[in-house]
Specification:
Length: 368
């Protein structure tokens, strides 16, 4: 039920700061006092006890009952958390900074019982501190997380000959695959950089045929929050040592995330007639490392339960054909809407505030 359809007595949201300092939604409030009273004198035994209820109290009771029933009938939906551009999204920084970021992010995931997979660009491992950069990936595995291939150098299939693209993806599995094999695991997931899947079906078929032969599956995206846009601004604030601006950006990011996660849940329901499992695109950024506890709270409030990518992908929705061919890096709800010839509620999609919005997809600068 949409907010506008709720009984008039229910309106507004209570805003409260969580332990990490973010403003978040804690539930419904009521705009008038509610009194339920009964006669002071007890009726004789055997007589029916009469309770006098004010009109506002009755509305309160009915609204409370509605919310309790809705809450009890709402089953948690699965969501797989996926982090792109490992080891680090954003400025390369020193190995000490990269290690601190990795530890903060992975420990936060463990603390909140959030399984996740990180998609690696192995070009980031190059340099004099190569062994220490590789150790960052081991920290992800030590934390119980999975790793996947995000190509070696973050190329776009829309702008790269397919043979060159395949060679880059093959190069991007050298270290990650070996680290997984040390633990008896296999690299199985591939995430398209920019979500750009080729501008012709022939190109996509040739590449995904190569993926299949080499044991890969495509890791789609069905939920995203524009985190990279906020993360770029957050990194700029940290570089200026502007803690106040960094806090403001983080609060705006979390507020937006709460809104857009709710939108994706509604859009999935509208498109499929049920609530699907989601695959959430995030990045291994300083912003997410600083926000993982608040992100976990947002997921809980939205009735989302973090699961592995393997588990989320068992949802039958992921068998829907992706028939989109074109230059846009669209997520898969959009692609399914084209296949199914159904509209998504675009008019209500929250937009990244103009202050933080970037005009286009992020440029990838592995040497930063």
């Amino acid at each position: 039920m949409m907010c506008s359809e709720r009984p008039p007595v229910c309106h507004g949201r209570i805003q409260a700061q969580d332990a990490e300092g973010s403003t978040s939604e804690t539930g419904w409030r009521f705009d008038e006092e509610h009194h339920i009273s009964r006669d002071a004198a007890e009726p004789p035994i055997g007589e029916i006890k009469m309770i006098r209820v004010s009109a506002s109290g009755l509305r309160f009771a009915l609204c409370s009952l509605f919310l309790l029933v809705a809450a009890s009938s709402t089953a948690a939906e699965d969501v797989a958390l996926t982090f792109d551009d490992l080891p680090v999204y954003g400025p390369r920084g020193t190995i000490e900074e990269a290690t601190a970021l990795t530890d903060k992010l992975t420990r936060g995931l463990m603390r909140h019982h959030l399984p996740a997979i990180g998609f690696v660009n192995e070009i980031q491992l190059e340099g004099a501190d190569r062994a220490l950069r590789i150790a960052l990936l081991r920290r992800w595995l030590d934390a119980g997380m999975d790793l996947g291939n995000h190509s070696y150098s973050h190329l776009s299939l829309d702008h790269t000959p397919v043979e060159v693209y395949i060679a880059d993806v093959a190069r991007g599995e050298a270290i990650t695959s070996a680290l997984l094999e040390e633990r008896g695991q296999k690299e199985r997931w591939y995430r398209y950089p920019y979500l750009e899947t080729g501008t012709t079906m022939d190109v996509r078929d040739r590449f995904e045929g190569w993926l299949g032969v080499h044991g890969y599956r495509v890791a789609p995206v069905t939920m995203e929050n524009g985190d990279w846009e906020f993360a770029d601004r957050y990194d700029e604030a940290l570089a200026r040592h502007d803690k106040s601006d960094a806090r403001r950006i983080r609060r705006a990011y979390l507020d937006f995330t709460g809104q857009v996660v709710a939108w994706y849940r509604g859009a999935g329901l509208q498109l499929l007639g049920r609530r699907p499992s989601f695959v959430f695109l995030l990045h291994a950024s300083r912003l997410n490392a600083a926000s993982i506890g608040s992100l976990a709270k947002i997921l809980r409030r939205q009735h989302l339960r973090a699961v592995s990518l393997d588990q989320a992908m068992t949802d039958p929705a992921y068998a829907i054909a992706d028939t989109y061919i074109g230059p846009d890096g669209d997520e898969w709800l959009t692609r399914w809407s084209l296949t199914l010839h159904k509209e998504l509620p675009w008019s209500t999609l929250p937009q990244v505030p103009e202050l933080y919005a970037r005009p286009e997809a992020p440029s990838y600068h592995p040497s930063q």
